[in-house]
């Protein structure tokens, strides 16, 4: 799928104020610093559409970006960021959960995990939460430029083994690097197919 246009629409902490209408949307979620905002920039070929930072906790609101005037990419704050106060964390978590509870337009959540790390309880728990809530999700492994190909295979295999302890099958996954433009076509084509299926359904 080709990206012809990508524009920022609105930032919100209140889910009820997010764009109305049944325009399909795809949300990026995962731990702070995993590369959610960078991935949005990579997929849209825009350097700073979504704000990124080396310091975790950069994205603090629900950000809607309209793509090809047709569907939304949604950049969310990270979960599990240790260096914000407990009360701030609670507020974040509340509006993240509200987002997933209330956005009927959400077609698929992309759970981002850093390919360098072993499966982390917080990510596995979040996937459980999505599963229980009936929200379709995929896994996006990020920062693949940081590992050699055989290490990538091993890390994905480890992830599969852990997930297969609780899930019947491995969710659809993508291996990406925002700095090396890896996984762009695959991810965009996947979204394109979902968009098309919705029109014909
Ligand atoms: P929060 O908004 O804080 O939740 O973080 P985020 O998940 O949006 O992460 P962000 O995109 O801001 O990236 C965090 C850091 O990781 C930045 O320093 C990015 O340059 C770096 N980064 C993101 N993606 C990649 C990647 O694919 N490869 C490498 N090497 N670095 C990356
Ligand atoms: Mg961010």
- Profile the largest sheet: 7 strands, mixed
Corresponding CATH superfamily:
P-loop containing nucleotide triphosphate hydrolases
Shape: globular
Question: What low-confidence regions span 5 or more consecutive residues with pLDDT below 50?
Answer: none
User: Element order, helices and strands?
Assistant: EEHEEHEHEHEH
Query: What fraction strand?
Result: 15-25%
By secondary-structure content and strand pairing, the structural class works out as alpha/beta
Indicate how many domains the architecture comprises.
1
Question: What can you tell me about this protein's structure?
Answer:
The chain is α/β, with parallel strands linked by helices and 201 residues long. It is built from 5 helices and 7 strands, in the order ββαββαβαβαβα. It has helices at 36-44, 86-102, 121-132, 149-163, 184-200; strands spanning 6-12, 25-30, 62-67, 71-75, 106-114, 137-142, 173-175. It is globular, with a radius of gyration of 16 Å. The model has no long low-confidence stretch (mean pLDDT 92).
Detail the topology: elements first, then pairings.
Elements: E1 6-12, E2 25-30, H1 36-44, E3 62-67, E4 71-75, H2 86-102, E5 106-114, H3 121-132, E6 137-142, H4 149-163, E7 173-175, H5 184-200
Parallel strand pairs: 2-4, 2-5, 5-6, 6-7
Antiparallel strand pairs: 1-3, 3-4
Guanosine-5'-triphosphate (GTP) binds next to α1.
């Amino acid at each position: 799928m080709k990206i012809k246009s990508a524009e920022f629409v609105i930032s919100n902490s209140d889910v009820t104020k997010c764009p109305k209408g049944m325009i399909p949307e795809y949300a990026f979620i995962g731990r702070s610093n995993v590369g959610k905002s960078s991935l949005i920039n990579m997929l849209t070929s825009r350097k700073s559409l979504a704000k990124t930072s080396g310091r975790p906790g950069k994205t603090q609101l629900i950000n809607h970006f309209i793509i090809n005037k047709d569907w939304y990419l949604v950049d969310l704050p990270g979960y599990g960021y240790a260096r914000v106060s407990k009360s701030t964390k609670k507020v974040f978590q509340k509006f993240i959960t509200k987002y997933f509870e209330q956005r009927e337009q959400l077609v698929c959540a992309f759970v981002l995990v850093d390919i360098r790390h072993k499966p982390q309880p917080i990510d596995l728990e979040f996937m459980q939460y999505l599963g229980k809530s009936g929200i379709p999700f995929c896994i996006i492994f990020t920062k693949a430029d940081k590992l050699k190909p055989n290490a990538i295979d091993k890390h994905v295999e480890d992830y599969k083994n852990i997930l297969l302890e609780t899930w019947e099958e491995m969710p659809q996954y993508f291996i990406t690097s925002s700095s090396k433009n890896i996984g762009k076509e695959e991810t965009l084509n996947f979204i394109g197919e979902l968009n098309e299926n919705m029109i014909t359904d």
